[in-house]
Specification:
single chain; alpha/beta; four-stranded parallel β-sheet; 4 strands; 45% helix
């Protein structure tokens, strides 16, 4: 079976469509700057799900001064002692910025709990607090987009 039979684009078609999307992303970039919008895009998913490739495709033709990618490493001992969301808050967008998180605070509810990096009580507290934190983000004018791959 060929690519077309599997619903896949051939390489030339893919690159042509991607070029069109890059033009649209540049338009979004200019709109964000003009409107002084604050956009936060969160990509979640297991390893190998395509987060990195998607982020690369989104950012390869736009300005890193507008589109910023945040992929935080494991927390330091100091960060472990902070309020859980604190290490993410400093990376949120200012006016005229789009911040893309390659994984986010949502790890606490899934990966961290399953892997034993947090207690059940910490995970439960996260589930109680996070909707309020995200509501505050949106109330401050941040457009919050979350994708699970």
């Amino acid at each position: 079976m060929g690519d077309a039979e599997h619903g896949r684009l051939k390489r030339k078609e893919y690159e042509k469509e991607l070029a069109k999307l890059h033009v649209e992303l540049v338009k979004v970039q200019e709109w964000v700057k003009q409107q002084r919008a604050k956009i936060c895009i969160v990509f979640e998913g297991r390893d190998g799900a395509g987060k990195g490739g998607t982020i690369k495709a989104l950012t390869e033709r736009v300005s890193p001064r507008v589109f910023r990618v945040v992929a935080l490493p494991a927390p330091t001992d100091r960060e472990k002692s902070q309020m859980y969301a604190q290490r993410y808050l400093v990376h949120l967008p200012a006016a005229g910025e789009i911040v893309i998180f390659d994984r986010s605070w949502s790890n606490r509810a899934g990966v961290e709990r399953v892997m034993g990096y947090c207690t059940d009580e910490e995970a439960q507290r996260f589930l109680e607090v996070t909707p309020r934190v995200e509501h505050a983000m949106v109330e401050s004018g941040i457009v919050l987009l979350k994708y699970w791959l």
